């Protein structure tokens, strides 16, 4: 059953990645992560050693659901060219698996990279619509940050392709790069009627993980047990900083400066 995933009053949602290579490793991760009370989980299936066995993937989805107290789940096969692990599946097989996973009751969102061929995006979009999942179209760049206008264009392109959620993650070389991402998020949030996830990676970009929600990014990633991207910080630290900002009611002051 489709459900509203992002309640405006609860933003930002904190998502933690699962990166175990086996079902047992993932179960162990969950034991440590769920008690920290994230708002969502991301299963990074490109880490999973049995990614080429659909029955094992589906069985592991069921195990994740049973151990996660019903937390929403983002299903991601990150490509190697965008920071993921090398996998045994070719592109058509990845699409086949994503479409099969859409039938599962234990998945809420499907991540698919916007750089993929349009016909593959359309096929995954059709499957998400048919089975009432949310489609996250994503783009990652690990060496630089585009200009603000280019970031806005990238997010708008994802919206045009049918994204329910548009996600971008870039590596900043300066603090100005981080501000370009945040300002692009704010402007795009005012222009488009989709949810946004925007991240500035690495040490310089940490502030985007803490403050991005003030500019319109609905979700931020934190380490539950193992990091899946540069610059992720612990869920405890992230929760503490966000709670402090909300408690002090200082977010309007931050944005207005």
Describe the 3D structure.
The protein has 257 residues and is of the alpha/beta class. The chain has a single domain, classed as Aldolase class I (TIM Barrel, Alpha-Beta Barrel). It is 41% helix and 17% strand. It is built from 9 helices and 8 strands. The chain has an 8-stranded parallel beta sheet with strand order 7-6-5-4-3-2-1-8. It is globular, with a radius of gyration of 17 Å.
Question: So what's the CATH class?
Answer: Alpha Beta
What is the radius of gyration computed over CA atoms, rounded to a whole number of angstroms?
17 Å
How much helix, percentage-wise, in residues?
40-55%
Q: How large a portion of the residues is in β-strands, by DSSP E?
A: 15-25%
> How does the major sheet shape up?
8 strands, parallel
Poorly predicted runs are: none
Indicate the overall shape. globular
DSSP summary, beta strand count: 8
What's the tally of helices? 9
Return the domain count.
Answer: 1
Any idea what the CATH superfamily is called? Answer: Aldolase class I
SS-based class: alpha/beta
Terminal residue distance? 42 Å
CATH topology: TIM Barrel
Strand order of the largest sheet: 7-6-5-4-3-2-1-8
Order of helices and strands: EHEHEHEHEHEHEHEHH
CATH architecture: Alpha-Beta Barrel
Mean pLDDT: 91
Organism: Anaerobacillus arseniciselenatis
Function: Involved in the third step of the chorismate pathway, which leads to the biosynthesis of aromatic amino acids. Catalyzes the cis-dehydration of 3-dehydroquinate (DHQ) and introduces the first double bond of the aromatic ring to yield 3-dehydroshikimate.
Binding site for 3-dehydroquinate: 42-44, 78, 209, 228, 232
Family: Belongs to the type-I 3-dehydroquinase family.
């Amino acid at each position: 059953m489709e459900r509203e995933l992002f309640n405006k009053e609860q933003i930002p949602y904190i998502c933690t990645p699962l990166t175990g290579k086996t079902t047992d490793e993932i179960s162990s991760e969950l034991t440590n992560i769920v008690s920290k009370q994230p708002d969502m989980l991301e299963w990074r299936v490109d880490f999973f050693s049995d990614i080429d066995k659909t029955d094992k993937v589906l069985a592991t989805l069921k195990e994740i659901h049973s151990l996660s107290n019903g937390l929403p789940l983002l299903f991601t096969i990150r490509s190697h060219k965008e920071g993921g692990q090398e996998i045994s599946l070719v592109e058509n097989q990845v699409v086949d698996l994503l479409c099969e996973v859409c039938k599962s009751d234990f998945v809420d969102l499907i991540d698919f990279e916007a750089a993929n061929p349009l016909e593959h995006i359309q096929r995954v979009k059709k499957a998400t619509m048919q089975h009432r999942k949310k489609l996250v179209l994503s783009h990652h760049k690990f060496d630089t940050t585009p200009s603000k206008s280019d970031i806005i264009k990238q997010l708008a392109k994802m919206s045009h392709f049918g994204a329910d959620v548009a996600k971008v993650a870039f590596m900043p070389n300066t603090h100005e790069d981080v501000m370009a991402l945040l300002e692009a998020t704010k402007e795009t949030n005012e222009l488009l009627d989709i949810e946004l996830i925007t991240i500035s990676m690495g040490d310089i970009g940490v502030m985007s993980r803490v403050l991005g929600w003030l500019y319109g990014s609905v979700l931020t990633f934190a380490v539950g047990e193992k990091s899946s991207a540069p610059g992720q910080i612990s869920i405890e630290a992230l929760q503490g900083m966000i709670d402090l900002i909300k408690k002090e009611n200082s977010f309007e002051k931050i944005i207005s400066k």
